[in-house]
C-alpha cells in the first residue's frame, strides 16, 4: 500500500471513535441531502408535469400587448409629441376572422389548437343566482388541448353533441345549486339574453375555483348567447414539446398580432417560487454538509495535534512538508469518501422509505405516493460536495502539520 | 581518512526578547569509521549541536559540509532529502510510530526513498532487525516492547537507508546497564566494522570510553582537547 495512505489509515484507525463520529456526520449529511433533494426534485417534476399537462401550452388572447399608436404620434415619428387624456377607441372584442387564423395556427407543425369564446353569465337555479364563466368550445377540438376530459364525474365533453342546449358544469357549482345531472338551469348573458340549458356532464378537477367557476357549452350556442356571432376570443394550444412554447408563441404573435402567451410566461411567478424553493433547499442541505465538514476538521486537527511527535519523526527521517500535508489530506478524503458511500446507502434507504409514503392528491383518485426523484446526478452532487468540504476541512490542519518543525518538537521533548 | 562531516564557526542563537546562544563557534571534523562521543553538562548545547549536524536545524552563522557538499543555505526540501539518504538519527526517546510494527517502522525510510521494491525493503528490514536480535519482536508494536528493544528498533531504522553518518542523542539514556552496553556495542561496530561515522551524545562515561574521540561542550562552546581530557577524567571518577 502507498506509504502516505497507510500512515493516514493508521491515524484514523487509532482514533476509531472520533473517526466513526465524523463519518456519521458526513454520512447523515449526505443521506439528508439525498432524501431532501430527491423529494424536492421529485415533487417539482411532478408539479411541473401537472402544470404543463393541466394548463394550455399557449393561449392566444384577443388583446394586443401595445396600445395602438395615435395618429398624431405617427405623423411626427421623431418629434416631441406626447398626447394625454386619450379616450381609448372602443375595440370590437374577439379575434377577428378567427376561422382563418385558426386555420393558420393549426397548420403549424407539432401542435393542436382549439378556439374558445369565453364570457360571463349569471346562472339561476332553484331561486339562486351565481356568476360563472362560460366557455364556448368545439368539443372535438377541445379534447385535444385540454385534460378536462380526465376529470369528468359523469359524461364527457362529447356529451355536448347530444343536446345543443347542453351545458357542462363543475361539481362545485352543482353542489352550490344542489343541482344534479339532467337538471335544467337558466343562463342569463350580459346582453340580457336568457336561455334554459340542461346539465349533460359534471367534472371535478379538485381545484375549487375551477369547479365552481367554469362551464362549457357548444361554441355556436355561446356565440348566440353572448351576442357575438362568428367570434372566438381565445385559442388554446397544446404542443408536442412544451419546452418550445415560448418560441412558437412568439411566432404566432408576430404572424397574428394577438397576444400569445406561453405557459412559461403565464406561470412565471410559480416558476420563480420553484426557483426560490430550490435555493432554500440547497442552502439548508449544504449547511448540513458544512456542519459535517466541521466534524472532519475537528478529527484531523486533533490527529495533527496528537501526532506532532510522529510528524517530527517523519520529517526528521526526511519526509517533506508536502508528504505530511498529503497524509492529512488523504485522511480527509477517506472520511469524505467513506462518509459519502455510507450516506448514499442510507440516503437511498430513506428515499425508498419516502417513496412508500402515500399521499392524497386532489388531482388523482387512484393510489398516489410521495414523488421521488431517483437521478444519479444528485448523488454525484452530494458526494462531490461532501468530498469537497472534507478536503477543505482537512487542508487547514494538513497545512499546519506540514509546517511542524522537528527541532521544535525535539527541543520540547528533550 | 575521508571526512564525512565538517563544520566551520557554527553558531546557533535562538532569537527572542533575550536571545539564547545554544552553540557558539564550533569547528568540527568527523571522519569515516570514527565513533565520536559528545559530552558536557546538562544544557551545554549537546542536542542543539547534534540537530545542526543532522541538518534538522539551521545555523545562525557558520557552515556545515556533508561529503564536501555545502549544506548551509539549501532549501528545506533539499535538506530533507539529504537526511533521508545520508543521515540516520537515533533520539534519546525512541521516537517510533506507535501504530506501526517494528518492521514497518524500520521500513519507513526505505519506503520514502523508494529505491527498493516493497519485498526487498521488507527483507532488508527484517535482516536489520535480526542483527539486532529483534527477530521475535518484528511484528510487535513499540508499546509491546521493552525500552532497550525499542531503542534497538530506532537504531535499525536509522540504518535503513545505509547512511554514512549516524547521529545519536543519548541513545542509552533511558536504558539499564546491560541494554546500554548493547546499544553502545552496536554503534561501535557500525563505526569500526562498517566504516560509518557515528556521533553520539552521552552522559555515561563507560559509553564514552568506547568512543574513538570525546568532545566536550560547556555553555555551547567546544573545549580544547587537553581540557576535554581533564573533564572526562572528572566525569569517570564521579
Ligand atoms: N526552546 C528553547 N528556548 C529557549 N532556550 C532553549 C530552548 N531549548 C533549549 N534551550 C536552551 O539551550 C541550551 C542548550 O540546550 P540543549 O538541549 O542543546 O542542551 P543539552 O546539552 O542537550 O542538555 P541535556 O544534556 O539536558 O539534554 C540550554 O541552556 C537550554 O536551556
Ligand atoms: Mg540533550
From TrEMBL, chain A:
Residues 19-254 form the MacB-like periplasmic core domain. This is ABC3 transporter permease protein domain-containing protein. Signal peptide: none annotated. It is a multi-pass membrane protein. GO terms for cellular component: plasma membrane protein complex. GO terms for biological process: lipoprotein localization to outer membrane. The lineage of its organism: Bacteria, Pseudomonadati, Pseudomonadota, Betaproteobacteria, Neisseriales. It holds the Pfam family FtsX. The chain crosses the membrane at residues 20-40, 279-305, 326-352, 372-396. Belongs to the ABC-4 integral membrane protein family. LolC/E subfamily. Its main location: membrane. Keywords: Cell membrane, Membrane, Transmembrane, Transmembrane helix. It is found in: Cell membrane. Residues 283-400 form the ABC3 transporter permease C-terminal domain.
From TrEMBL, chain B:
SMART domains: AAA. GO terms for biological process: response to antibiotic. GO terms for molecular function: ATP binding; ATP hydrolysis activity; transmembrane transporter activity. Keywords: Antibiotic resistance, ATP-binding, Cell membrane, Membrane, Nucleotide-binding, Transmembrane, Transmembrane helix, Transport. InterPro entries: AAA+_ATPase, ABC_transporter-like_ATP-bd, ABC_transporter-like_CS, ABC_transpr_LolD-like, MacB-like_ATP-bd, P-loop_NTPase. GO terms for cellular component: membrane protein complex; plasma membrane. Residues 5-238 form the ABC transporter domain. It comes from the Bacteria. Belongs to the ABC transporter superfamily. Macrolide exporter (TC 3.A.1.122) family. This is ABC transporter related protein.
Amino acid at each position: 500500500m502507498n506509504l502516505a495512505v497507510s500512515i493516514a489509515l493508521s491515524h484514523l484507525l487509532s482514533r476509531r471513535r472520533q473517526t466513526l463520529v465524523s463519518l456519521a456526520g458526513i454520512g447523515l449529511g449526505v443521506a439528508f441531502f439525498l432524501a431532501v433533494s430527491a423529494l424536492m426534485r421529485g415533487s417539482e417534476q411532478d408539479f411541473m408535469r401537472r402544470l404543463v399537462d393541466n394548463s394550455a401550452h399557449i393561449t392566444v388572447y384577443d388583446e394586443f400587448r401595445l396600445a395602438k399608436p395615435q395618429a398624431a404620434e405617427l405623423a411626427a415619428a421623431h418629434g416631441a409629441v406626447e398626447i394625454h387624456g386619450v379616450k381609448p377607441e372602443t375595440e370590437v372584442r374577439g379575434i377577428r376572422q378567427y376561422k382563418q387564423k385558426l386555420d393558420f395556427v393549426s397548420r403549424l407543425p407539432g401542435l393542436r389548437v382549439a378556439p374558445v369564446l369565453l364570457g360571463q353569465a349569471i346562472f339561476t337555479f332553484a331561486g339562486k343566482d351565481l356568476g360563472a364563466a362560460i366557455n364556448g368550445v368545439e368539443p372535438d377540438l377541445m379534447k385535444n388541448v385540454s385534460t378536462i376530459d380526465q376529470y369528468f364525474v359523469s359524461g364527457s365533453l362529447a356529451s355536448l353533441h347530444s343536446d345543443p342546449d347542453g351545458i357542462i358544469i363543475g361539481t362545485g357549482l352543482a353542489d352550490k345549486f344542489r343541482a344534479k345531472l339532467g337538471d335544467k338551469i337558466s343562463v342569463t348573458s350580459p346582453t340580457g339574453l336568457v336561455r334554459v340549458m340542461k346539465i349533460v356532464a359534471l367534472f371535478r378537477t379538485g381545484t375549487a375555483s375551477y369547479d365552481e367557476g367554469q362551464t362549457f357549452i357548444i361554441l355556436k350556442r355561446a356565440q348566440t348567447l353572448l351576442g357575438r356571432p362568428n367570434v372566438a376570443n381565445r385559442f388554446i394550444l397544446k404542443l408536442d414539446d412544451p419546452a418550445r412554447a415560448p418560441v412558437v408563441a412568439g411566432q404566432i404573435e408576430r404572424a397574428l398580432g394577438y397576444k400569445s402567451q406561453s405557459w412559461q410566461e403565464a406561470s412565471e411567478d410559480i416558476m420563480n417560487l420553484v426557483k426560490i424553493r430550490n435555493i432554500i433547499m440547497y442552502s439548508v442541505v449544504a449547511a448540513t454538509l458544512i456542519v459535517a465538514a466541521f466534524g472532519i476538521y475537528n478529527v484531523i486537527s486533533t490527529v495533527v495535534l496528537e501526532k506532532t511527535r510522529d510528524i517530527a519523526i517523519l520529517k526528521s527521517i526526511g519526509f517533506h512538508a508536502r508528504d505530511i500535508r498529503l497524509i492529512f489530506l488523504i485522511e480527509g478524503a477517506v472520511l469524505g469518501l467513506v462518509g459519502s458511500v455510507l450516506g448514499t446507502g442510507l440516503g437511498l434507504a430513506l428515499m425508498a422509505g419516502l417513496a412508500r409514503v402515500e399521499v392524497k392528491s386532489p388531482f388523482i383518485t387512484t393510489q398516489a405516493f410521495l414523488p421521488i426523484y431517483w437521478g444519479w446526478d444528485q448523488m454525484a452532487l452530494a458526494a462531490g460536495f461532501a468530498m469537497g468540504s472534507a478536503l477543505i476541512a482537512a487542508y487547514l490542519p494538513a497545512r499546519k502539520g506540514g509546517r511542524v518543525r522537528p527541532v521544535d518538537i525535539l527541543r520540547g521533548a528533550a | 581518512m575521508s571526512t564525512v562531516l565538517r563544520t566551520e564557526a557554527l553558531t546557533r542563537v535562538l532569537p527572542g526578547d533575550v536571545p539564547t546562544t545554544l552553540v557558539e563557534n564550533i569547528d568540527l571534523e568527523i571522519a569515516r569509521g570514527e565513533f565520536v562521543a559528545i559530552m558536557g553538562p546538562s544544557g551545554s548545547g549537546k542536542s542543539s549541536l547534534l540537530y545542526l549536524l543532522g541538518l534538522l536545524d539551521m545555523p545562525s552563522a557558520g557552515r556545515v559540509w556533508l561529503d564536501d557538499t555545502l549544506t548551509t543555505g539549501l532549501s528545506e526540501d533539499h535538506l530533507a532529502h539529504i537526511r533521508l539518504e545520508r543521515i540516520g538519527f537515533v533520539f534519546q526517546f525512541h521516537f517510533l510510530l506507535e501504530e506501526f510494527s517494528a518492521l514497518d517502522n524500520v521500513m519507513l525510510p526505505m519506503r520514502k526513498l523508494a529505491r527498493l521494491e516493497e519485498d526487498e525493503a521488507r527483507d532488508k528490514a527484517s535482516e536489520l532487525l535480526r542483527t539486532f536480535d529483534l527477530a521475535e519482536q518484528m511484528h510487535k508494536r513499540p508499546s509491546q516492547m521493552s525500552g532497550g528493544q525499542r531503542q534497538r528498533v530506532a537504531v535499525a531504522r536509522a540504518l535503513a537507508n545505509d547512511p554514512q553518518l549516524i547521529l545519536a542523542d543519548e541513545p542509552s539514556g533511558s536504558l539499564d546497564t546491560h541494554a546500554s552496553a548493547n546499544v553502545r556495542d552496536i554503534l561501535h561496530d557500525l563505526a569500526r566494522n562498517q566504516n560509518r561515522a557515528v556521533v553520539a551524545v552521552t552522559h555515561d562515561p563507560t559509553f564514552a570510553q568506547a568512543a574513538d574521540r570525546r568532545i566536550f561542550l560547556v555553555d555551547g562552546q567546544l573545549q580544547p582537547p587537553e581540557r576535554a581530557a581533564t573533564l572526562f577524567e572528572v566525569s569517570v571518577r564521579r
